[in-house]
Write a structure and sequence with these properties.
The chain is α+β, with helices and mostly antiparallel strands and 248 residues long. It is 41% helix and 22% strand.
């Protein structure tokens, strides 16, 4: 998810949200692995300096962000899908909104800063869902924010479970202008068909966020806050979550 509010999906910016979506057909499991953005990392492109990990996307786009994720986390990423602040609400509205249990603290923050909201189970429209996914201050920080992002993704998957093939193909056609991806249209249709035929939507969904407290610490440079990460430990955790084993 890029931090841009534009209909031009070819523009690059920082990868504000990074989620590795992994399908394991042997274990019939989907893993959503959120990679926190503020990791202190050496980015060779651009100025060639240490900066936040998600800046790689602003230098050279999603392919370069993938290269950095593979470098630090020692996993293979096959492809990508990009949304931004403009396109994600359009996608969610096309799907009829998303049902989320909003806490009192989340509702309070949204009321005070963005949009009217009450706590409890709510059907959020696209704009409200984007605001919900961006909440950070005073409500749990980055870790809580990625949890909210994963909740929305899981709810969208749950909604798609109710679709038949005709409705899924119609959805793909309607939301394709709002997604930038390395997949061709034919590949997306093929993946959607496989998902329906082989029951991928019924796989168990597991979540992980990295780095966690076992492999990171707070770090400040020139008054800028970072996660300072023990990358071999973090990479081993991610490999184990995705593959069930590690070569580290």
């Amino acid at each position: 998810g890029m931090d841009l509010d534009t209909a031009d999906m070819d523009k690059n910016s920082r990868a504000d949200a990074m989620v590795i979506f992994s399908l394991n057909h042997n274990t019939r499991q989907i893993t959503l692995a959120s990679i926190l953005r503020d990791q202190y990392s050496f980015i060779p492109y651009g100025k060639g300096q240490y900066e936040k990990l998600h800046h790689a996307c602003s230098h050279a786009g999603p392919a370069y962000q993938i290269e950095m994720l593979e470098k630090y986390y020692k996993v293979k990423i096959d492809n990508y899908a990009v949304v931004n602040f403009y396109s994600l609400p359009k996608i969610i509205d096309t799907m009829g909104g998303v049902e989320i249990e909003v806490t009192k603290a989340e509702a309070k923050y949204m009321n005070e800063n963005w949009t009217p909201m009450t706590s409890g189970k709510r059907k959020l429209n696209g704009k409200e869902a984007l605001i919900y996914m961006r909440i950070r201050h005073e409500t749990g920080g980055d870790e809580a924010r990625v949890d909210r992002q994963q909740k929305v993704i899981k709810q969208l998957i749950a909604e798609i479970k109710t679709y038949n093939k005709t409705k899924i193909l119609s959805l793909i056609n309607n939301i394709s202008p709002y997604i930038r991806t390395g997949y061709t249209s034919n590949q997306i249709v093929s993946l959607a068909t496989d998902a329906l035929v082989n029951g991928w939507m019924n796989y168990e969904i597991k979540q992980i966020s990295l780095p966690d407290s076992e492999c990171s610490a707070n770090y400040t440079v020139d008054k800028i806050w970072y996660w300072k990460v023990d990358f071999p430990v973090a990479a081993k955790k991610l490999q184990t979550a995705l593959y069930g084993k590690s070569n580290i």
